[in-house]
Amino acid sequence: MAVTRSLLPWLALGLALIVAPFFVYPVFLMKVLCFALFACAFNLLLGYVGLLSFGHAAFFGFAAYVSAHALKVWELGPLQAVALGTLTAGVLGLGFGWLAIRRQGIYFAMVTLALAQMIYFLCLQAAFTHGEDGIQAVPRPPVFGLIDVSDPGRLYWLVLALTVLGFLVIARAIHSPFGQVLTAIRENEPRAISLGYDVDRYKLVAFVLSAALAGFAGAIKVMVFQLASLTDVHWHMSGEVVLMTLIGGVGTLAGPLVGAAVVVGIQNVFASFGAWVTIIQGVIFVACVLLFRRGIMGEIAAWRQRKPPDAPGE
Amino acid sequence: MSDLLGVPLPVLWGQVLIGLINGSFYAVLSLGLALIFGLLNIINFTHGAFYMLGAFVSWWLLRILGIGYWPALILAPLAVGLFGIVLERLLLKPLYKLDHLYGLLLTFGLALILEGALRQGYGVSGLPYAIPPSLQGAWNLGFMFLPVYRGWVVLASAVVCLVVWLLIEKTRAGAVMRAATENPTLVKAFGINVPLLVTATYGLGAALAAFAGVLAAPIYSVNPLMGSNLIIVVFAVVVIGGMGSILGAVLTGFALGVIEGLTKVVYPEASATVVFVIMALVLLVKPAGLFGRTR
Fold it and tell me: Which of A122, A284, A290 sits opposite B91 (nearest CB)?
């Protein structure tokens, strides 16, 4: 009974996503889906292992470039291109993670940020990324040469299927014994070590998984916007995904979805006001940190449980 | 005679000089970051914005009040330092008992606000700030021409770093500060106002960043985004140097600037990434950084 009740909101969300394109502009929906998946991938690290990566744009953006190149130059199919982007991000994540988990806390954040900046300069200078122009007019070939996804209305179903797949992978990982160990590491690392867990290995696997899924999101984004550009790899993108997770609620399964919808919504509303988008994002950041650290979903959960408010993650 | 490994010497010296100048900014900025980190345990993401504000304040002083470079060198750091103190008192203070990550996120949000506000007001094209007349021209050193202003930047940065280092290592105030980073509770028990010390340190760090900004204004154009890309390099410098050490921050800053300059001569494409490559290598060998203690 409890299981069905907890599944109910998810079923409602699924239903809403199925009818949504008949009411809302599909490109906007797909943008929300991509960033929601990106934020979920990021949250897997911050929310469940307690590692703040400030370099996730590298995985998102580099996978976007690889998929765009695969679609445009190598003329691969959509699924093959997405798979290639995901794989590349995973390999990149293995390298970054291996280096970054040597340091903890704020150092970890700084190391991931600096490593991501390496990828930014690589993308700025490499020939295949076309520097400032990015890879534009990326084609949308049919899936397996059969299913036409060239217009946004049809593409939506592919994007929805892929993001749901990604989300299920994350949900499965979190609710597995592996996820339990990750939570144990977040709560008390020395204890996890003393219990005999190879903490660094768990952290690394989580990092690679998170990086690959961030790349998965980036590759899907290329299909939606038919564009891979420097914006995707810039460190502001890393900040944006932190913001989405923070607004929605760190360490909640649904939080990043809500956060992504809010941030993408704000960007759309204020798109014509120039730098105001940045200012508003900054204000929300400050407000989240000072006033509601649990985020929207975290506050809702706390309100429903009627617990006295206390600060998370001390 | 006139070239080394196929590189003409004047070109080589020119790049070393540019590297030293960049290194001066890295050193002054990472020094401030290290100070703030030592006492507040916060990675001050707003540091790049303070640097940018320093340049903007000196530009405003000239443009609006007609106050020139030399007074600005004092006034801009003072103004930005005071601004930093206000931010610390109002916003950072409530976060000290929480995870350090919240401090990083808050200062990141502040940086977005400051950058966004100035970009909204001034765009991204950059505003010119003339080199003061007393520092124009160039010295002939025999092997190269040294623009006076560039020499001054390196000298001023080195002197400021030395003064701050002496302040921390040789004075009583510095001793108290070092003690407070080790054990704030004990220092408090001796009747020392630790919160005030923390606030003052944050102000000093902000002022140092602004000082670098004023020095930078005549070299680079005054631009809302001038701090945001620099700060990432400074973070890498700090990781390489090791956060425990003031000296590490300064020496690594200068050294990496020069290495970056030399890379530009040998293999220009790598000059923007060389700092990060070195960071990766240092992490492999010494995860605590070159001068750092393991925490």
Answer: A290
CATH number at residue B46: 1.10.3470
Note whether A281 and A263 are within 8 A (CB): yes
**Nearest-Cα residue of chain B relative to residue A287:** B106
CB contact under 8 A, A242 and B108: yes
**What residues of chain B lie within 8 A of the CB of A187, using their CB?**
none
B235–A276: do the CB atoms touch at under 8 Å? no
Closest A-chain CA to B103: A289
Q: How far is B67 from chain A (nearest CA, A)?
A: 29
Q: Give the one of A107, A277, A286 whose C-beta lies nearest to B91's C-beta.
A: A286
Q: pLDDT by residue for chain A (314 residues), tens digit each?
A: 455 667 888 888 888 888 888 888 888 999 999 999 999 999 999 999 989 999 999 999 999 999 999 998 898 888 999 999 999 999 999 999 999 998 887 888 888 988 999 999 899 988 888 888 889 888 888 888 778 777 888 889 999 999 999 999 999 999 999 999 999 999 888 999 999 899 999 999 999 999 999 999 999 999 999 999 999 999 889 999 999 999 998 888 888 999 999 999 988 888 888 888 889 989 998 999 998 888 888 888 888 876 555 555 44
Residue A266 C-alpha, separation from nearest chain B C-alpha, in angstroms: 15
B90 neighbourhood in chain A, CB within 8 Å? none
The CA-based diameter of chain B, rounded to the nearest angstrom, is 65
**B49 in a structural domain:** yes
| Inter-chain touch A242–B105, beta carbons under 8 Å | yes
Count Cβ neighbours within 10 Å for each residue of B220-242 and write b for 16 or more, e otherwise.
eebbbebbbebbbbbbbbbbbbb
Residue B293 belongs to some domain of the structure: no
Number of domains in chain B: 1
Distance CA A152, CA B183 (A): 60
B115 in a domain, yes or no? yes
B105 touches chain A (CB under 8 A): yes
With a CB-CB cutoff of 8 Å, which residues 252-281 of chain B face chain A? 269, 272-273, 275-277, 279-280
3-state secondary structure chain A: CHHHHHHHHHHHHHHHHHHHHHCCCHHHHHHHHHHHHHHHHHHHHHCCCCCCCCCHHHHHHHHHHHHHHHHHCCCCCHHHHHHHHHHHHHHHHHHHHHHHCCCCHHHHHHHHHHHHHHHHHHHHHCCCCCHHHCECCCCCCCECCCECCCCHHHHHHHHHHHHHHHHHHHHHHHCCHHHHHHHHHHHCHHHHHHCCCCHHHHHHHHHHHHHHHHHHHHHHHHHHHCCECHHHHCHHHHHHHHHHHHHHCCCCCCHHHHHHHHHHHHHHHCHHHCCHHHHHHHHHHHHHHHCCCCHHHHHHHHHHHCCCCCCCCC
Q: How far is A242 from chain B, CA to nearest CA, in Å?
A: 9
pTM equals 0.89
CATH architecture of A25-235: Orthogonal Bundle (1.10)
**From A52, A125, A275, residue closest to B116, measured CB to CB:** A275
- Domain residue limits at B271: 3-285
Residue B294 included in any domain: no
Best to test chain A binding among B102, B229, B240 (most A CBs inside 10 Å): B102
